[in-house]
Write a structure and sequence with these properties.
Chain B: Pfam families: SBP_bac_1. Chain B: This is Extracellular solute-binding protein. The complex is a heterotrimer of chains A (322), B (436) and C (309). Chain A is mainly alpha-helical and 322 residues long. Chain A is built from 14 helices and two strands. Chain A has a two-stranded antiparallel ribbon. In chain A, helix 2 (39-68) crosses helix 14, helix 4 crosses helix 8 and helix 11 runs antiparallel to helix 14 (289-313). Chain B is α/β, with parallel strands linked by helices and 436 residues long. Chain B has two domains: 2-142 and 307-359, D-Maltodextrin-Binding Protein, domain 2; 143-304 and 363-435, D-Maltodextrin-Binding Protein, domain 2 (3-Layer(aba) Sandwich). In chain B, 40% of the residues lie in helices and 16% in strands. In chain B, strands 1, 2, 3, 6, 11, 12, 13 and 14 form an eight-stranded mixed beta sheet that branches. Chain B has a three-stranded mixed beta sheet with strand order 8-9-15, covered by helices on one side. In chain B, strand 8 (206-208) and strand 9 form a beta hairpin. In chain B, helix 8 packs across helix 9 (223-237), helix 9 (223-237) crosses helix 18 and helix 17 runs antiparallel to helix 18. The termini of chain B are far apart. Chain C has 309 residues and is mainly α. The longest helix of chain C is centred in the first third of the chain and has 47 residues, at 79-125. In chain C, 72% of the residues lie in helices and 0% in strands. Chain C folds into two domains: 30-77, no CATH class; 90-308, MetI-like fold, CATH 1.10.3720.10. The chains are: A mainly alpha (322), B alpha/beta (436), C mainly alpha (309). Chains A and C meet through helix 1, helix 2, helix 4, helix 5 and helix 6 of A and helix 1, helix 2, helix 3, helix 4 and helix 5 of C.
Chain lengths: 322, 436, 309
């Protein structure tokens, strides 16, 4: 998933979730310095970031948009194509199957990831032993390991010849990168990589809850489970929603892990398994930059719609994008 | 001769970077000479480039390792798209040449004295880098195919070395009946050897000439192709061959362990296996090599898998100088010898192929067998060359899908050939080719 | 789903005693169910690392056909041999990669943090025309897949003659929209307007107010954004892969993948690269793991503080 800074974006975004999580924050906006004469000061503060934003995001984006409106075959010259590339994308089985794959994958991996990280956070929040502090770090460590290296390691571990599965199951060991095992195999890698990070965010938000609330709940006779379900989870829900949004964006743009694991997958991972892998191969292997740009934008549209629908569905809890 | 110290060139670290480029990985001996930037990934290219620089006064090589194979091609592709960023000379695998040439990424070397060195290569090797009259690369090494086999397994199960594919199948059945390991392997991730095996039976999958770049003929589902694909699909279906991807740690460990009695591969395979730790442990001294089994022993056909060339890019600053590098880099005796001795590649330069030392070399990997003389040189000499796809990467990706389907029993070989033909025709038309 | 039922199982074990918050750990009863669950998680998350440690002591033969299996040691112990090959192979290019990674990660991390602090502060504390639009743009930008940007970015960098230089990695990596978002959220809350107004009353200029009043208050968020940005760049693979062509300029992620490619093809040149890839991966993750462990007080504080404050 890490690509052109996506990883750290997801990272800091999730951190932001924590910052907003826990308790409602005072409406600071109304007290802003509104003096028009001060606009230039604001822009002065904003300028360095704005410059980098314009040069390394807006400009390439516009250029990619421009590219996506042209077409060039290997045996033909470049010509203006209007929206042809987009109509082609939405009828291209490679693209549509890729979208279908990441949608299904999202439905599998995100609940697993969220379950693991939420449970781990709740358990860690309820413990203060030395072992729990140690566990917290161990669970978090994969976040500090590059996705490429993580995928390489799991690639070794998935080996049907010398991996641990072989030792357990012998020759009937499942191969987790092809056929029926692929979903499980990829879900595992992604969960391992990100669950600890999500766990830390949720954990931090949980730690921010005022203990007095628990005291009150206890007086009312609430059990630990009730406290978790009725108090803790609702109180960190905005952190959960933000994590979910970025997990959805990241999963729909799934790239690094399948790309790294593809050569050892016995054909299980194809060159068009996800739209992002497909776009990458179109641009870099098949010399189809124009169409690749269109695919990437088409994916962007799908991601935007997906996130919008998701936010709409959870609008009562979220609200962080207001 | 003094350049034997070439490998020490890197020891002086920073001082090697006296060139203006600053990122050359070999010392520039003559700072005043024209510098030609070269991308390549063979580890011994450092020595090779040092040899070149020590023996050339007016041209110097600035070598960069831009990544192995596909990583390098991706960068080159980006550079072609962007219109800048390509090196002057680039190492490419032979099957990548037509695709980059078609995009206008490569210079036709026939205008820069390619014919000077044509005599150093067999006709087949030269055909691989040519398209009509145009020449888009100078060959470095090749991959004449042969059948490597495990002598221990052959002895244990009383197998005879097959000379035809029918015999190969018969031995495989014998092996299976005796409870032995698999005879071979059908990897989905590297379709190139399958293309070669189809060609061996007479298939001509691609007909294409750079002089008429929009005309293309695709024959991936003729009877020969179907026969070969059916043959291997049945080998897998009947449990005689595996379906493990190759160039993976799993394949290597399987090879070392003796999971496969044969490895149908190319002349560079011993180098690949040695580098991956094979031929040293449990399987040391147990390998031998025999000529590729044939369909018609009366009319044997030899084929090639892999190999690489040096091409001059269209973005090259000084094409004359770049052509000199393409022609003379990896062409001196010392570099060539280092190539086959240490890098374990199979050079295509006839100065090596005809040298006694190379001919009579007793391969350690093959337990002292004179593999070059017995197998690889005759195979290389008899190879007639082929035409690669102008869009190899897409072709291979689709072929990978078809082999996967074959291996999973979802399609027969013939069905796979038909759907491959169909998807390639669709793709070619989409790309603006006229199919004939 | 058995995982899901876990807390239910341990819930009865949670007594009616006061929730054991931070104040008094000694009063906490042992919670075997919870600890068992944690133990299971620890095993799972540590498994690949354990594999890496074990595998780094093997040579290629031991790696693929060792006697102890993937998760235990082989007869031969080749750790130091692997380590010395790692640092000397190809003129010690591995150390160069490590150094490059450090340079890129810290330069980009610091740059991203500076930009994010300034911009976040502006969004939080000033009302200016276009503020909302700019901020929405910033958030919307994340939804565009990076693959769309790579080729245009490459074209742009090559126009600026920056491809194949450290800048080609560092400059684009300084773009961290969510660092800005985090700083904005944090500054809005953590830097009281009253303090700023008081400073302004005292005649301090806007920039002085920022440096002397706002900046110190934002420190916890700054550390967090810095760490996250450093990790983001350190772990990045796609961008350096695309914009760097010279292997001596690669960061560690791209470098190790280069070896993986060489090892997979026929091109190890007699050296088995698999053992190097394993030991190289192990060495490469040590700096960040140490950084996280050593600085955990700061980043955990930074993550939590937004809600604790």
């Amino acid at each position: 998933m890490a690509s052109l800074g996506t990883a750290d974006q997801v990272a800091s975004s999730a951190a932001a979730a924590t910052a907003t999580g826990g308790r409602p924050r005072p409406e600071a906006r109304k007290q802003l310095k509104g003096r028009g004469t001060n606009a230039w000061v604001a822009w002065a503060f904003l300028a360095p970031f704005a410059l980098v934003f314009l040069v390394f995001l807006v400009a390439p984006l516009l250029y990619a948009l421009y590219l996506s409106l042209y077409t060039k075959g290997l045996a033909t010259g470049e010509r203006f194509a209007g929206l042809d590339n987009y109509t082609r994308a939405f009828t291209d089985p490679s693209f549509l199957n890729g979208i279908w794959f990441v949608l299904r994958f999202t439905l599998v991996v995100i609940p697993v990831q969220m379950a693991v990280s939420l449970l781990a956070a709740l358990v860690l929040d309820s413990l203060t032993s030395r072992f729990s502090r140690f566990s917290r770090l161990v669970i978090f460590v994969p976040y500090a390991i590059p996705a490429v290296i993580g995928a390489l390691m799991w690639g070794f571990l998935y080996s049907p010849n010398f991996g641990p599965l072989q030792q357990i199951f012998g020759d009937s060991a499942p191969f987790l990168l092809a056929d029926g095992g692929l979903f499980a195999g990829l879900t595992n890698v992604v969960t391992w990589q990100w669950a600890g990070y999500y766990m830390i965010i949720i954990y931090a938000a949980l730690q921010g809850i005022d203990p007095a609330i628990y005291e009150a709940a206890k007086i009312d006779g609430a059990t630990g489970l009730q406290v978790a379900l009725r108090i803790k989870i609702p109180m960190v829900s905005s952190a959960l929603v933000l994590i979910l949004v970025f997990a959805v964006i990241g999963t729909l743009q799934f790239f690094t892990e399948p790309q790294v694991l593809r050569p050892i997958s016995n054909g299980g991972i194809t060159a068009d398994i996800t739209p992002n892998v497909y776009a990458f191969n179109l641009a870099f292997n098949y010399a189809q930059v124009n169409y690749a740009s269109a695919i990437a934008f088409a994916l962007g549209i799908v991601v935007f719609l997906g996130v919008y629908i998701f936010l709409f569905a959870t609008r009562k809890r979220g609200g962080f994008l207001k | 001769m003094a350049s034997l110290t070439g490998c020490g060139g890197g020891d002086d670290g920073g001082s090697g970077g006296n060139a203006s480029g600053g990122s050359c990985s070999v010392p520039i001996v003559n700072p005043d000479a024209t510098q030609v930037s070269v991308w390549g990934w063979y580890p011994n290219l450092q020595k090779v480039a040092t040899n070149f620089n020590n023996t050339h006064d007016d041209v110097q090589v600035c070598l960069t390792n831009a990544g192995q194979g596909v990583d390098e091609y991706n960068k080159f592709q980006t550079a072609i798209t962007a219109g800048s960023g390509a090196p002057d000379v680039i190492m490419l695998e032979t099957d990548q040449v037509p695709g980059f040439a078609l995009q206008g990424g490569l210079t036709d070397l026939s205008e820069y004295g390619a014919s000077d060195v044509q005599g150093k290569f067999s006709e087949g090797a030269w055909k691989d880098v040519s398209s009509g009259d145009a020449v888009y690369g100078i060959p470095v090494d090749g991959g004449p195919m042969a059948m490597m086999y495990r002598t221990d397994i052959f002895e244990q199960y009383g197998l005879t070395v097959p000379t035809t594919w029918d015999e190969y199948r018969a031995q495989a059945e014998k092996l299976k009946a005796a409870g032995g390991p698999l005879m071979g392997d059908v990897p989905s991730n590297v379709p190139a050897p399958m293309v070669a095996l189809m060609q061996q039976k007479g298939a001509v999958p691609w007909e294409y000439d750079a002089a008429n770049p929009t005309d293309l003929k695709i024959n991936l589902n003729d009877q020969n192709s179907k026969d070969v694909l059916d043959y291997w699909a049945n080998m897998v279906k009947d449990g005689l061959a595996g379906k493990q991807d190759q160039f993976t740690t799993d394949y290597i460990s399987g090879v070392v362990r003796g999971d496969y009695a044969t490895y149908v591969s190319a002349a560079w395979a011993p180098g690949y296996l040695t580098g991956a730790g094979a031929g040293e442990g449990a399987d040391a001294g147990k390998w031998a090599v025999a000529p590729l089994p044939q369909w018609d022993p009366a009319n044997p056909v030899q084929v090639n898998w892999g190999g690489s060339v040096f091409s001059v890019t269209e973005q090259a600053q000084d094409k004359e100088a770049a052509a000199v590098v393409a022609k003379e880099l990896y062409a001196d005796d010392e570099s060539l010898k280092d190539g086959w001795v240490n890098q374990i590649i199979f050079p295509l330069n006839t100065s090596v192929l005809t040298s006694d030392e190379f001919i009579n070399n007793q391969s350690t990997f093959f337990n002292g067998q004179t593999a070059n003389k017995d197998v690889y040189i005759p195979a290389a000499d008899a190879y007639e060359g082929s035409t690669y796809s102008p869009f190899s990467n897409n072709f291979y990706a689709e072929f990978t899908k078809e082999i996967t389907a074959m291996n999973n029993g979802e399609k027969t070989g013939s069905e796979a050939a038909d759907s491959l033909q169909e998807s390639m025709e669709t793709y070619a038309e989409q790309q603006g080719f006229t199919l004939s | 789903m058995s995982v899901l039922s876990k807390p239910t199982a341990e819930a009865p074990a949670r007594p009616a005693a006061p929730p054991p918050r931070r104040h008094d750990p000694r009063r906490q009863p042992r919670r075997w169910g919870s600890h068992l669950f944690l133990g299971f998680l620890v095993l799972y998350f540590i498994l690949p690392l354990w594999f890496l440690v074990v595998a780094s002591t093997k040579d290629a033969g031991g790696l693929f056909n060792g006697t102890g299996g993937a998760l235990w040691f082989d007869q031969g112990f080749h750790f130091f041999e692997n380590l010395s090959t790692l640092f000397t192979y190809n003129d010690g290019i591995y150390l160069k990669w490590l150094g490059n990674s450090l340079l890129y990660a810290f330069a980009a991390g610091i740059g991203a943090t500076v930009l994010a602090v300034l911009a976040g502060y502006a969004f939080a504390k000033f009302d200016f025309p276009g503020r909302r639009l700019t901020f929405s743009l910033l958030l919307g930008a994340v939804m565009v897949p990076a693959t769309a940007l790579v080729i245009p970015t490459f074209v742009l960098l090559s126009r600026l003659e920056l491809t194949n230089t450290a800048w080609a990695v560092i400059l684009p990596s300084m773009l961290n929209p969510f660092g800005v978002y985090l700083m904005r959220v944090y500054a809005a809350d953590g830097v009281p307007d009253e303090l700023l107004d008081a400073a302004r009353m005292d005649g301090a200029g806007e920039f002085r107010t920022f440096f002397s009043v706002a900046l110190p208050l934002m420190r916890p968020a700054i550390v967090t954004v810095l760490l996250l940005s450093v990790v983001g760049t350190w772990n990045n693979y796609f961008l350096p892969l695309a914009v760097l062509s010279d292997s001596t300029k690669f960061p560690i992620t791209v470098g190790l993948n280069l070896w993986q490619g060489l090892a997979g093809a026929n091109n190890g040149g007699g050296t088995s690269l698999y053992a190097l890839i394993i030991v190289g991966s192990l060495v490469s993750i040590i700096p960040l793991v140490i950084a996280f462990l050593g600085l955990q007080k700061y980043w955990q504080g930074g993550l939590a503080i937004g809600s604790l404050k």
